Amino acid sequence: MGNTRVIVAVYGPREVQNKSQQNNNQALVRCEYSMANFSTGDRTRRQKGDRRSTEISLVIRQTMEASILTHLMPRSQIDIFVQVLQADGGTRSACINAATLALADAGIPMRDIVTSCTAGYLCSTPLLDLNYVEDSAGGPDVTVGILSKMDKVTLLQMDAKLPMDIFENVMQLAIEGCKAIANYIREVLLENTKQLESRRGG
Amino acid sequence: MATTARGGGEREPAAGSGGGGGAAAEMEVEAYRRLFPVAYFERHLRESVRLDARPLASPRDTSVALGLVGSADGSALVKFGDTTMVAAIKLEVMTPPAESSDEGSVAVDFYMPPICSPTVRPGRSAEVAPVISKQLSDVIMSSGMINLKDLCLINGKASWIAYLDIYCLNADGSLFDAALVSAVAAFTHCIDDGRVVTVPGELEGKTKLPLVNKDKRKLMLNNVPFSLTCGLHKEHILVDPTAEEESIIETFVTVVLDTLGRVVSVYKPGGSVLAYTSILKECITLAKRRAQQLRNILNESVSAMEVDKSS
């Protein structure tokens, strides 16, 4: 998304690695988020378990879990690994969008496509998809994740203060952004499936 | 059971005309492949072909793309078939130690995040990662590719340290080779963009500091190393093994050559096949050929990048 580059790999459904966590009714979803050392402006040696990574891992996991039909795959595990190669704001959203594509590519059954987008409010204007510079300006930053066709919100995060009516505008803008991304993702998936079909000789 | 006509090709589509019979035969082949990997593999070797239908001495399709990561000073993406590596260099200023006050330094780090392979578990990094990291560091230093004196800014006070981070995004064999090419490519792309840096502890009492690093310049590389890993299985030499082949073959020889065709390093860490000198010489010849190929690919991508920049 712009200069933010993210790559996601999905492994599974496969055997649960830690038997004590095995769930007999549904699949276990695990997510790990990590940023490359060179992804931000200054090279920072990031520890694997640092707070921000853990928080974002949790957010992505819970967002995707809302959409994956986990009851179809009991006693198994689905791993989502996210690697950020270049960060320029909106990494959370880029990760969720990439994870949706990866899960679709893996053929894992989902209720709907989950897309996410950020929006902010600077200089009395709602802005869609803030980059790093705009984000560091200190204005509010709203991240929204929706199930596009079902029109349901699975993720909503905001920091900083915002009056209620402006908040509704900003959230609406973010939802529109999500829908636009969902259309694009759908086109890409359709194109990919057509290519696979033609390669298979069908 | 496995028919020899099928020459491997794990992603080969089932022949449409096969229908139900084709699907069943494909399942048997897959099962045979999982249950008896060595026999499956040797069956292919007898026909002088490998699991992905390559001839024994042929490496996979290689591609190099430079400048992938905008926020880094130099970056490259290298693909050997499915093996994917991203390398990025960030330059920072440091105070050089007293014994090498006119030299910069290079710090090499190789990571294998769990994204790269189903066998890497989060929380426990892959066994080979620190080994490859050390090998890369040794080869880059001993080949003399970078003249450390080039990285000096102010003698005794400031010099560049180049942090080279290599991330494996997909591990499908030949990790060291791909990592080395990505490191070399990233250095080729690395531009010292002449940004003004403050030297720690120098500001007191000085109103005007001379700008030391004014123009953009590229790092001068000499004696660029290229490597080739061959697997030895009984009497066959397999060039550029994939991960599946690596799990069956136990003996590997990695040869690193520089631009003048001199041997920088030979690495054969044990293994069940004891190689005669003739086999090692054969590996070195194959490595020479591969080095030429890699040099051409790298030069092509560099000129492609310069065309992009100037247009």
Automatic annotation (TrEMBL), chain A:
<dbReference type="InterPro" id="IPR020568">
    <property type="entry name" value="Ribosomal_Su5_D2-typ_SF"/>
</dbReference>
<dbReference type="GO" id="GO:0016075">
    <property type="term" value="P:rRNA catabolic process"/>
</dbReference>
<dbReference type="GO" id="GO:0005730">
    <property type="term" value="C:nucleolus"/>
</dbReference>
<dbReference type="GO" id="GO:0071051">
    <property type="term" value="P:poly(A)-dependent snoRNA 3'-end processing"/>
</dbReference>
<dbReference type="InterPro" id="IPR036345">
    <property type="entry name" value="ExoRNase_PH_dom2_sf"/>
</dbReference>
<dbReference type="GO" id="GO:0000176">
    <property type="term" value="C:nuclear exosome (RNase complex)"/>
</dbReference>
<dbReference type="GO" id="GO:0003723">
    <property type="term" value="F:RNA binding"/>
</dbReference>
<dbReference type="GO" id="GO:0034475">
    <property type="term" value="P:U4 snRNA 3'-end processing"/>
</dbReference>
<keyword id="KW-0963">Cytoplasm</keyword>
<feature type="domain" description="Exoribonuclease phosphorolytic">
    <location>
        <begin position="112"/>
        <end position="177"/>
    </location>
</feature>
<dbReference type="InterPro" id="IPR001247">
    <property type="entry name" value="ExoRNase_PH_dom1"/>
</dbReference>
<keyword id="KW-0271">Exosome</keyword>
<dbReference type="Pfam" id="PF03725">
    <property type="entry name" value="RNase_PH_C"/>
</dbReference>
<protein>
    <submittedName>
        <fullName>Exosome complex component RRP41 homolog isoform X3</fullName>
    </submittedName>
</protein>
<dbReference type="InterPro" id="IPR015847">
    <property type="entry name" value="ExoRNase_PH_dom2"/>
</dbReference>
<dbReference type="Pfam" id="PF01138">
    <property type="entry name" value="RNase_PH"/>
</dbReference>
<comment type="similarity">
    <text>Belongs to the RNase PH family.</text>
</comment>
<dbReference type="GO" id="GO:0071028">
    <property type="term" value="P:nuclear mRNA surveillance"/>
</dbReference>
<dbReference type="InterPro" id="IPR050080">
    <property type="entry name" value="RNase_PH"/>
</dbReference>
<dbReference type="InterPro" id="IPR027408">
    <property type="entry name" value="PNPase/RNase_PH_dom_sf"/>
</dbReference>
<feature type="domain" description="Exoribonuclease phosphorolytic">
    <location>
        <begin position="1"/>
        <end position="109"/>
    </location>
</feature>
<dbReference type="GO" id="GO:0000177">
    <property type="term" value="C:cytoplasmic exosome (RNase complex)"/>
</dbReference>
TrEMBL record, chain B:
<keyword id="KW-0539">Nucleus</keyword>
<keyword id="KW-0698">rRNA processing</keyword>
<feature type="region of interest" description="Disordered">
    <location>
        <begin position="1"/>
        <end position="23"/>
    </location>
</feature>
<dbReference type="GO" id="GO:0000177">
    <property type="term" value="C:cytoplasmic exosome (RNase complex)"/>
</dbReference>
<dbReference type="InterPro" id="IPR001247">
    <property type="entry name" value="ExoRNase_PH_dom1"/>
</dbReference>
<comment type="similarity">
    <text>Belongs to the RNase PH family.</text>
</comment>
<dbReference type="InterPro" id="IPR020568">
    <property type="entry name" value="Ribosomal_Su5_D2-typ_SF"/>
</dbReference>
<keyword id="KW-0271">Exosome</keyword>
<dbReference type="InterPro" id="IPR033196">
    <property type="entry name" value="Rrp43"/>
</dbReference>
<protein>
    <recommendedName>
        <fullName>Ribosomal RNA-processing protein 43</fullName>
    </recommendedName>
</protein>
<dbReference type="Pfam" id="PF01138">
    <property type="entry name" value="RNase_PH"/>
</dbReference>
<dbReference type="GO" id="GO:0000176">
    <property type="term" value="C:nuclear exosome (RNase complex)"/>
</dbReference>
<dbReference type="GO" id="GO:0034475">
    <property type="term" value="P:U4 snRNA 3'-end processing"/>
</dbReference>
<dbReference type="InterPro" id="IPR027408">
    <property type="entry name" value="PNPase/RNase_PH_dom_sf"/>
</dbReference>
<dbReference type="GO" id="GO:0034473">
    <property type="term" value="P:U1 snRNA 3'-end processing"/>
</dbReference>
<dbReference type="GO" id="GO:0071035">
    <property type="term" value="P:nuclear polyadenylation-dependent rRNA catabolic process"/>
</dbReference>
<dbReference type="GO" id="GO:0000467">
    <property type="term" value="P:exonucleolytic trimming to generate mature 3'-end of 5.8S rRNA from tricistronic rRNA transcript (SSU-rRNA, 5.8S rRNA, LSU-rRNA)"/>
</dbReference>
<dbReference type="GO" id="GO:0071028">
    <property type="term" value="P:nuclear mRNA surveillance"/>
</dbReference>
<dbReference type="InterPro" id="IPR036345">
    <property type="entry name" value="ExoRNase_PH_dom2_sf"/>
</dbReference>
<dbReference type="GO" id="GO:0034476">
    <property type="term" value="P:U5 snRNA 3'-end processing"/>
</dbReference>
<dbReference type="InterPro" id="IPR050590">
    <property type="entry name" value="Exosome_comp_Rrp42_subfam"/>
</dbReference>
<dbReference type="GO" id="GO:0071038">
    <property type="term" value="P:TRAMP-dependent tRNA surveillance pathway"/>
</dbReference>
